[in-house]
Amino acid sequence: MALKALDIFKLLPKTNCKKCGCPTCLAFAMKLTTQKATLDECPDVSEDAKAQLSGAAAPPIRLVAIGAGAAKIEIGGETVMFRHEESFYHPPGIGVVLPDNLDEDDLRARIAAVKALSFVRVGMRIGVTVVGVENVSGDAAAFASTVKAVASLELPMVLIARQAAHAEAALAECAAARPLIHAATDADWQEYVRVAKSAKCPLAVTGPDLDSVAALAVQVRKAGIEDIVLDLGAGSIAAGVEAMTAARRLALKRKADGVGFPCMAVVREPDPYQNVSDCCAYVAKYAGIVLTPLSGPEQIAPILTLSQNLYTDPRKPVQVEAKLYSVGAVTPQSPLLVTTNFSLTYYTVQSEVEASRVPTYIGVIDTEGTSVLTAFAADKLSSEKVAAFLMSAEVSEAVSHRKVIIPGYVAAMSGSLNEDSGWEVLVGPREASALSKYLKTVWQDT
Amino acid sequence: MTLLDTAKERWSGTISTLTIGADAAAGGTRKSVVTVGGAGGLPFAPFDGAPPHSIAVAMEVWDCPPEDWPRSLADALGDVVASPAEWAKACVEKWGADLICLRLASTHPDQGDASPQEAAATVRSVLEAVDVPLIIWGCDLPDKDNLVLSVCSQAAAGERCLLGTVTEDNYKTLVASCLADGHCLIGLSPIDINIAKQVNVLVTDMGFPLDRLVMYQTTGALGYGLEYTYSIQERGRLAALGNDRLMGVPVICMVGQEAWRAKEARATSEELPGWGDEGERGVYWEIATATALLQAGSDILVMRHPKAAQALKTTIDRLTTV
Amino acid sequence: MKTYAVTFQPDNCTVRAAAGRSILDAAKAAGITINNVCGGDGVCGKCRVVIRAGKVTAKPTMFLNRHDIQRGAALACQTYVAGDVVVEVPPESRTGGIPHLAHEDAVRFGKVCAKIGEGATYPSSPLVRKVFLELPQPTVEDSLADQERLYRSVRKHYDLPIMQMGLSVLRRLSNTLRRCNWKATALLGSRGGTVEVVDVEPGNTAATNYGVALDIGTTTIVAHLVDLTNGETIAANARYNSQSAFGEDVIARIMYAGTADGLSVLQDTVVSDINGLISALVFDAGVRLADVTCVVCAGNTTMVHLLLGLDPAHIRCDPYVPCTLNPPVIRAAEVGITIGARGLLTALPCVASYVGGDVLADVLVTEITRSEELSLLIDLGTNGELVLGNSEWLMCCSASAGPSFEGGGIGCGMRATSGAVEWLTLGEGGRVVGCGVVGGERPLGLCGSGLIDAVAGLLSAGCIDRAGHFVADVCGPRLQKNDAGEKAFILFPGEQTALGRDIALTEADISNLIRSKGSVYMAAECLLDHVGLTFHDVRNVYIAGGFGNHLGVEQAIRIGLLPDLERSIFQVVGNGSVLGAKMVMLSEHALKYIQDNIASAMTYVELSTSHKYMNEYTSCLFLPHTDIERFPSVAKATRLQNGSGAAE
Hints:
The complex is a heterotrimer.
Chain A: H1 5-11, H2 25-33, H3 47-57, E1 63-66, E2 73-76, E3 93-99, H4 104-115, E4 118-121, E5 124-127, E6 130-134, H5 140-150, E7 157-160, H6 164-171, E8 180-184, H7 189-199, E9 203-206, H8 210-222, E10 228-231, H9 237-252, E11 263-266, H10 272-284, E12 287-292, H11 297-310, E13 324-327, E14 336-340, H12 343-356, E15 360-365, H13 372-377, H14 383-390, H15 393-398, E16 403-406, H16 414-421, E17 424-427, H17 435-445
Parallel strand pairs in A: 3-6, 3-12, 6-7, 7-8, 8-9, 9-10, 10-11, 11-12, 14-15, 16-17
Antiparallel strand pairs in A: 1-2, 4-5, 13-15
Helix pairs in contact in A: 1-2, 5-6, 6-7, 10-11, 12-17, 14-16
Chain B: H1 3-7, E1 17-20, E2 34-37, E3 56-62, H2 71-77, H3 84-93, E4 99-103, H4 116-129, E5 134-137, H5 142-155, E6 162-166, H6 172-181, E7 184-188, H7 193-205, E8 213-216, H8 226-241, E9 252-253, H9 255-259, H10 263-266, H11 278-297, E10 300-303, H12 306-319
Parallel strand pairs in B: 3-4, 3-10, 4-5, 5-6, 6-7, 7-8, 9-10
Antiparallel strand pairs in B: 1-2
Chain C: E1 3-9, E2 13-18, H1 23-29, E3 48-58, H2 66-70, E4 73-75, E5 79-88, H3 101-112, E6 128-134, H4 146-157, E7 163-165, H5 167-179, E8 183-191, E9 194-202, E10 210-216, E11 220-227, E12 232-240, H6 250-257, H7 262-285, E13 292-299, H8 301-308, E14 330-331, E15 344-347, H9 357-366, E16 375-379, E17 385-389, E18 394-398, E19 420-426, E20 432-437, E21 445-446, H10 448-461, H11 472-475, E22 479-481, E23 487-492, E24 503-506, H12 507-530, E25 540-544, H13 553-558, E26 570-574, H14 576-586, H15 588-599, E27 602-604, H16 611-616, H17 632-642
Parallel strand pairs in C: 1-5, 7-9, 10-13, 13-15, 16-25, 18-27, 19-21, 25-26
Antiparallel strand pairs in C: 1-2, 3-4, 3-5, 6-8, 8-9, 10-11, 11-12, 14-15, 16-17, 17-18, 19-20, 22-23, 23-24
Helix pairs in contact in C: 6-7, 9-14, 9-15, 14-15
């Protein structure tokens, strides 16, 4: 919502009656700004207030669903220009586009290759989430039969055809799967609208530049299609990135008509390095769908990883992986420090240890990205957790002694940690800046 | 008025312009110089403001053959890694690097503990071997760097090199050297926009000019913290465009160094089955890291693999020609 | 079990202790209180003693170098008896001394907030009222029972639909009334909607009705004895909260409360402190303890829980839920507080786990909610609570500033008691050109306000840069290596100080202060940001907390603790908690006002989950801030000093 918390607060009853579950009206208003609550949770809000607030509530970029069932994807629905302002919410559909002029064996092989584009990174499965079929042959029957074969992948589809009738023919094979129909142009949009409407599918619109695409989108929407995708990648990569950037800003600021829809690009660049580069550029700069003819795992994996990275919610605190780290040439006699997985904490400790030139192990405990004091106060850093870590294989394989150094601020857990783990607990300094001295003096003396 | 015109934002600041390398007119021996910075809008959005003067692609050259680089990278570089001068030459003549980033890795106490004089000799040899500007990067140990880089700074005096790095805890020595010898400086910060600014404040408070400063905000590779770097760079760019002069400083990214640490770049096919061609994986990983950072706003990108460097140059070209 | 003799000097006091007992414990047994800020964990370094003779074993610690150890220095909590031993406890390691601020608070506060007029805004209606009644004697025609007769008379004075009386009072009632010829004084206590006849005293005792208002702080407890008939404070006193022995901060005490007997020990400790204070007050004022009829406390949520013996464990764990936010009115004796036998006790309501009645009291007395103007209230204590709002809305948060404002974590830091430098002015090169020491004698250390002055002065003099690091050229000979090998700026050389040791600041000390001030400034900015406002929208900034008395606003702005606004906006409030407690004690309307207009309107913001706070906290770690444009008056002063100035 563009409205600020105080503006919303002024429109609420201000009785602090707590019926909405929040302790005060202001707290409720603050929740509304972050969309963690909806206006209907307040039973006493006036009609006038409702009207004023709902105007601001309509999303600036439409959320469009493509595909059906478990594999359905939703694109668009974004609220910010830069991920650090809030977060990006709906990762783009990334996939391979197949031509309809391959022989049976080739097609089967290509489909198999697409199916294999599935990877596990940091415990999450990422893979292509859409597949496109292009009517390169210009023949309706070939298009339809290729679509039928590709439908076996059970991925949301993008049907790319220059004639609405061909799209219609292909739809017969997969309408229930709600594919995206690509694409209406200035010349033939009425035909495409008719086909999309009857199949109840989303429709892409394309044109040479942002103005023409937006104007076309306005017409298509007037004709009754709500789920529209803007193809802004028809020209050069430079033009495409520029257009998508402008469209995102215009949509968020509600400054133009016809731009409040997700965008897409089909990347046709023949040089594979440039093609992957372009796909990455589109993923970064706002595309809701990116299609490429490439299907090598080494080509697709980086694009998928980039999407995974940029669509991570930045508000989740910056964390490092909870595990045993080592600094310098450690031996089994090297000291072992424990600390939290809040990035700032970890890197501060690590740099002090590096500066000390004493090879040291640093055990990082998962405290959901909170610092030592906060974690301790909220019981996220507890003697049970640390004991469990100390008794893990990771630690017992690396460290031969049984002494652990805990941060000075959590000295209070030394007794219980000693009981829980059987390790000797040394209380380190409160401030990381004193670690160097500690490691060189106190540790050496033990 | 087109939609692009409507979308334009009124920015009040720009990134400062920085030149690396001194040609004969400027008292140096470089035949080409690199001028970066100057952006007045979002990256690759000409409607939004002036584009930067250029985006430079540097290639890394080490002063000693690197020990544990993956096969696909080592093979692509070949024997030149035995000699910094040869390596630098290949980077420029064969692979088109705009500038060389010389890593004085052997000066690290654990890596040979080369002396400042030895390092200076390497610097001179590279300066002689190529005509492009030079980035001189220490071993990242503040005490040793202070010794080595001040001697190298003298050895390269007048060539307007880019020296790195300084931090908020260790900057006085190098700032003094670069000031005296006419070089530019890289400020290091740990993915924290406030520390980045604090480094710039401390350095400029010593009298170092803002237009000889570059920010290295620590690069996270694709899959290994890229998004943190991405957002920090975007935030820095926005602050600069909003007229925060101290943030209006060009940004350098160590793409090659970080991308090639990734398992996805290094592993063999046996180690990582199903992830595609072993020889190409790393190249794509490096290219993707670079392209993403381009979109966040980067001015100098330091690459390792020749193919990745060349591809990046082409990408930059294509992105700046509407 | 073999025991050894442990002798403490200069007290010349000996106790016996078993081998392995810590020197700190032995001292406790000997009645000698040694500083124990970290509760015996060996991380604060404040329990330094000297082993003059005898055998001990000790755990290694980084607070002592080889030099120190050779000279016999030891940390009492990390050193253990291993034979007969003689221990010297130096003065700076001893706790004790009543902070001098107590009396000054009451006086100063009267000066600053005269407009509030000590309860005049709220109609008088003390927690326990005394009303003199002349009851008509019972007759055949008027044969109302004694209790109902009493009630009828009371109702002639006050319209009180619901009244009650305890059995023990009822038992004595008939006798009392007849013995005093039906002229008696009823004590009426308000107990959440009903009125209890707390007691019936023979004759007319209405003129002697006293109450105690308490500010139960984490570090200090302040008590005022108030004449409930006219609202005057007739005595004031304060002492350190002895719970500090079990933990410096709220979290440590909550954890201690979780151990066996921990909760009852903590409760007993604070009750004992309070009883001690009350005894001292009645003695000073020449008042009978039996005439003290009620006690009202203001404290943070944990302090209230510990006083009432409520388990605070869940306060500190996600989602941070206390046992109660509205403590009931109870009999003081139920928690062991000694006043009139049947006297009542209550505490101001709390708002959230970490924002308590003391902060609500501050809001009450500063009248933030009575104006449309936007006000910001900062309580600069150990916890550092902030309140932002006006008559329409209120927000609060807890900044966890850390102990440096109370001298903790600073080498030469101390509380504001005798020997504390509470203000100072530095000249060229950081030379001390003026200072004020509490008690007027030689300086012992720096208290919070002195520390702020020192850092501000060093910054202005150019002795430190904006990151808080020393600039050797400007510091000159005043910058030396201390015993621990760290660079330290000597403010007061040994010859001038009470202990003969230099009073100096290290970069670590300065860094500590910077972090504390950064937390407070950032917390204020986050509150404002939550409602889309900025510092420029704020019309009043109130600074509360016992520490604030000598706070130099100019210096606080210079280091970036306070925002750079027009100076007239700032008002140092002093101890609003005890005054608020007093106002509530004098008027139930004040309590209702707090409940209806402050507590229920207060929106608590949890900063630890605020990603703005986490992302931008580092920007506050510069002096005064990374963005000096936010502090134009400081920037201007710096430019004037530096001439043309190289940077921004």
